[in-house]
Amino acid sequence: MPDQPPTAASSLPECGGRPWTRHAINVLSGDAHRSADTHLLKPLFEGLPGISVYLKDESTHPTGSLKHRLARSLFLYGICNGGIHEGTVLVEASSGSTAVSEAYFARLLGLRFIAVMPRRTSPSKIEAIARFGGECCFVDSAGEVYEVAARLAREHGGYYLDQFTYAERATDWRGNNNIAESIFRQLEGEEEAVPEWVVVSAGTGGTAATLGRFIRYRGLPTRLCVADVEGSAFYDAWRTRDRGVTAPGSRIEGIGRPRVEPSFVPGVIDHMIRVPDAASIAAAHVLSERLFRRVGGSTGTNFFALCSVAADMMREGRGGALVTMICDSGDRYADSYYDPAWLAREGIDIAPWRRAIEGFLEHGGDLALGSASPLSDTSASPLSDTN
Asked: Yes or no: is domain 67-168 CATH 3.40.50.1100?
């Protein structure tokens, strides 16, 4: 039978959900305007002549971490793709900081939020999620979060935010005040406006992907170094070109993963460094003392890797600017990285690493632990090993 012409009873559908969508986007845009931008700090280290160090302080976001930017982008991505509506139940797999930020945005929009996290997530992050009205579902290992989060989203007829898949695509890497554009804009007018290296650790891989793509898009000579931690799959995947690599998982919250996440884009990375957990925590302690406030373990990873790159640059007689990030506050880790009893239980001795880092910052030279280089598993200097 041929198609019948439309009648009054078969009128075209209305845009039923658009008023809420416009409201939600306005709420998220308002948060972005109120947050303005984070500071770019320039601490001075006597032992690093010719090296300018810049720290992008992402801990000053309303939810206290780098993940505030990602959470806002994931919400916008879900809303604009039609996945998040009024009344949608939101679910995320997280090691804590992303979930804190997502709980904040869910509360702004009046949406229920459930975070699936490892049991060993820091108590302060769990408390922050609850304070924003979020709910926590705990699993025994980091590798379980994906399946449980997807199942809960299905059971509630909700939406799985899935930071580990969407982090690299939810943010516009060409600009729109992403973290890369923010850093390079703040460097304008500095003596070294274009840094030699940007150093960042990998959790989802999304921040590294944004930075690496932006650098290439703008035709900049800056190179990207990604720091990875013990128990993470990223370093071995980058080194072997095998995305099937797995690992037990990381003790440094927020970075390192037991599998290679979809948002990890190895092709934009020029060099990777694997940082021992003791070095990450020691670097966090050392940097905290120089900034007069605590920074988290992932910031310690970033800072140790930056020092490693600086050591190679000075050994080869090079100078220039290096940029890395303060990911979150160390106050979230008072019961772990800053607790001597926790360090003892984990068998982590930060004292030798502290001495090595402090000596390097004060006097330069090699960043070495005893007679061995702490970077003995990185097969070449980051200055010559590019991908």
From this structure: yes
